Amino acid sequence: MDAVAARAGVGKASLYRRFPTKERLVLEAIRHRHEQGRPAVPDTGSLYRDMLGYLRALIRYRQGHAEGLQAVASEVMVNPELATEFRRQIAGGMLAGFRTIVARAVERGELPRGTDVDLLAMLPLALVHHLRLAGEPIDERQAKRIADQFFAARPGGPAGTATDPGGQRGR
Fold first, then answer.
1. At 94, which helix (H) or strand (E)?
2. Distance between start and end Cα atoms, the chain
3. pLDDT tens-place string over residues 74-115
4. What is the pTM of this model?
């Protein structure tokens, strides 16, 4: 806290008034950085292209912030308060992006009206998390693999059409 106060040019007491714990300070720094760098949710008119684009953008974001995210991930494992806030603010923001993509696809008729938007929106993050735990590389190839398997339009598939509108699959 001393180093942060010195760098900010404020007294330690001022810092503690705004951030009563180190965890709150760390979380606010993460939230601020995440809000500034989080990719926009695409709206291309295609579930597949939106999902692939958002996955790729999140993976690039993650790669650009790997060191900081790794440090936070370690702390989240041992600090329940930080874990709760991280899930709410950071993971919740990413999940909201996926939820928006899925909800738009339902509105456009790419997915049936009865689609469980919340459950389907969790799928990409759950798969990325699982791949990471399994030691798999989290890269654009994995983004395409997820989008191709679960969000590509195909007869009887999730989008219910035979081809991806615009012919942009995998680009």
1. helix 92-108
2. 46
3. 777 888 887 887 777 777 888 999 999 999 999 999 999 999
4. 0.74
